[in-house]
Write a structure and sequence with these properties.
Strand 5 and strand 6 form a beta hairpin. A 7-stranded antiparallel β-sheet has the order 1-2-4-5-6-3-7. Helix content is 14%, strand content 32%. It has 2 helices and 7 strands, in the order E-E-H-E-E-E-E-H-E. The chain is an alpha+beta fold and 208 residues long.
C-alpha cells in the first residue's frame, strides 16, 4: 500500500521552472549546444510569437576576434532558428520538411552585442504575416519578421522570405544544386570569413 503526499498531509515544494532549450530537431541542429532558443508563446492571432533564448558567453564561431562581443551572425542564426521553430512547432509543418531561405536580413546594434559577465538572455518577437497551410509544404515565398531585445533594449531586427518543400522536392533541388549560395552585404569590411566586422548581414538562397 502506498500513500501520496497529499493523502498524508505532507506538502511538497513547488519546483521552479528550469531553463532548457527547445528541441534541436525543430531548428534543424545536430547539437543542443547550437540551439539558442528556450521557449515560445503564441499570441492570440496565431501570427505573432514571443520567444526567449540565450547566447553563451563563449562560442567557437559566433564571437568577435577579441572575444568581447557576440557576432552579428549569431543574431542571424537565431532568426533562422526562430523561423524554423515557429513553422514546425506552431504551424504544424512536419519534421523532415525542408526550407528554402530566399533571403534573410539582419541589422544589429554593435553596442548591444557586448558580452557581459553572464550569458546573454534575450526576447525575440516573430511576426508571420504569411503562413503555410497548416501542416503542409508551400512553394510560395512567405514573409517573416524579427525583433530581438536584451533587457528591453533593441539588439537586432530583420526579415526573411522562405518556402517549405517536401523531402522529395528537397532531394531534387539538392541534386541540381550541389552547394548553397551564401552572400552578405551591408558591412564596410571584408567578407563572410570575418563576420564579426559586419553590423548588417544578408543571406540569399540557402537550402536547409
Amino acid at each position: 500500500m502506498s500513500l501520496s503526499a497529499s493523502e498524508i498531509g505532507v506538502g511538497l515544494p513547488v519546483l521552479p521552472r528550469l531553463t532548457t532549450t527547445v528541441p534541436k530537431e525543430y531548428v534543424h541542429r545536430a547539437s543542443l549546444a547550437e540551439v539558442f532558443l528556450t521557449g515560445c508563446t503564441a499570441q492570440d492571432d496565431g501570427l505573432r510569437f514571443s520567444l526567449t533564448g540565450q547566447w553563451p558567453r563563449a562560442h567557437t564561431f559566433f564571437n568577435s576576434a577579441d572575444g568581447s562581443s557576440h557576432d552579428p551572425l549569431q543574431a542571424a542564426e537565431t532568426f533562422r532558428q526562430a523561423g524554423m521553430f515557429v513553422t514546425h512547432a506552431e504551424h504544424g509543418v512536419p519534421l523532415g520538411h525542408h526550407f528554402v531561405l530566399w533571403s534573410l536580413s539582419c541589422h544589429t546594434d554593435p553596442e548591444q552585442l557586448r558580452i557581459g559577465s553572464r550569458p546573454t538572455d534575450f526576447e525575440l518577437e516573430v511576426t508571420c504575416p504569411d503562413t503555410a497551410p497548416r501542416g503542409r509544404a508551400s512553394a510560395r515565398r512567405m514573409g517573416i519578421g524579427f525583433a530581438l531585445r536584451r533587457d528591453g533594449r533593441p539588439v537586432a531586427h530583420g526579415d526573411g522570405l522562405y518556402s517549405i518543400v517536401t523531402p522529395a522536392v528537397y532531394a531534387r533541388l539538392r541534386a541540381s544544386r550541389p552547394g548553397p549560395d551564401v552572400h552578405e552585404s551591408g558591412g564596410a569590411h571584408g567578407h563572410l570569413r570575418s563576420p564579426h566586422l559586419l553590423s548588417g548581414v544578408r543571406v540569399l538562397r540557402c537550402l536547409r
